[in-house]
Write a structure and sequence with these properties.
The protein contains six helices and five strands. By secondary structure, the protein is α/β, with parallel strands linked by helices. The chain folds into two domains: about 55 residues, Helix Hairpins, CATH 1.10.287.80; about 220 residues, Pyruvate Kinase, Chain: A, domain 1. The protein has a five-stranded mixed beta sheet. Strand 4 and strand 5 form a beta hairpin. Helix 1 runs antiparallel to helix 6 and helix 4 packs across helix 6. The longest helix has about 80 residues.
């Protein structure tokens, strides 16, 4: 027969765990609201910048800027955005699985591949598998801002312009809703022609730019790449908080169900113990009466 003391100890342990998961859920919910607000505030600017670049590049030559150059893909870099902590369900596992697939595709195409890991979980995964990591950034999402994301983008642009790499791919979790993240594989460099492709002839109006178009491209294209990296970081941070909030909510609910089951089991054990004691007393009384 199980010991009631052990059952009570286990119930207290599960109750403490439930308090912890509930607190983590509340913290993640608060952080999610801030991250989601920052992401929503950034979207109009990103969309307007994309519209301006579309209009400007439609009137410019494809060779007007080095970031538009389409070269033979021989060397690629994969940037993987993961979290620094666990307890967020399958958030990190989905990104790592998709990133491993992208790396396998690059190697199958006989391209030289370099890897940059932003986040501790991705770094640890590829390090355990002895995958060479060119650059790692740990605890990046603890207090990142536009300047930190722009530093990543500038490093990638410098390597692309110097022809050290021919393409850059970013793998991250896009925030669709609190319950629906989506793993995205996005080509960052060269700037995809779909974003800067000219409209059909005859539908473009002529504009006079001040400063001229090439100077605008020189200013806007690097900022566009920086902003795309910053947007990916915002999306990833919001998706991570949402995944952790959902995971902690599920853990809290499971802990409550376990407490109910353990409490019921404890009551049954106590009932059986009391019944056994009563039977022993009655049996002893009957034996004593028969002896007399």
């Amino acid at each position: 027969m199980p010991n009631t003391r052990d059952i009570r100890r286990r119930i207290r342990s599960v109750q403490n765990t439930r308090q912890l998961t509930k607190a983590m859920k509340m913290v993640s919910a608060a952080r999610l609201r801030r991250a989601q607000q920052a992401m929503v505030n950034a979207r109009p600017y990103a969309q307007k910048m994309a519209d301006v670049l579309h209009s400007l590049a439609a009137r410019a030559s494809p060779l007007a800027h080095p970031l538009l150059a389409e070269r033979e893909l021989r060397r690629s870099e994969v940037v993987v955005l993961t979290g620094d902590r666990g307890m967020c369900g399958s958030f990190n596992a989905n990104i790592i699985r998709r990133a491993a697939g992208v790396i396998a595709e690059e190697e199958a195409a006989h391209r030289e591949m370099s890897l940059q890991c932003v986040g501790r979980k991705g770094r640890d995964y590829f390090r355990r598998r002895r995958r060479p990591i060119r650059r790692e950034r740990v605890d990046f999402f603890r207090s990142f801002g536009y300047a930190a994301a722009a530093a990543i983008a500038r490093e990638l642009m410098d390597r692309f312009v110097q022809e050290e790499i021919d393409s850059v791919v970013v793998v991250y979790n896009e925030f669709k809703s609190a319950l629906q993240p989506r793993v995205v594989v996005e080509r960052l460099l060269p700037v995809p022609r779909a974003e800067v492709q000219a409209q059909p002839e005859g539908t473009l109006e002529d504009y006079i730019y001040e400063p001229p178009g090439p100077e605008l491209l020189e200013e806007l294209l690097p900022r566009h790449v920086e902003w795309q990296v910053y947007r990916a970081c915002l999306e990833s941070a919001a998706a991570e908080h949402a995944a952790r909030m959902n995971a902690m909510e599920s853990a809290t609910r499971n802990a409550g169900e376990m407490i109910d089951q353990l409490t019921l089991f404890l009551n049954r054990v106590r009932q059986a113990s009391i019944t056994r004691e009563i039977i022993e007393v009655v049996s002893g009384a009957e034996a004593l009466a028969e002896s007399l």
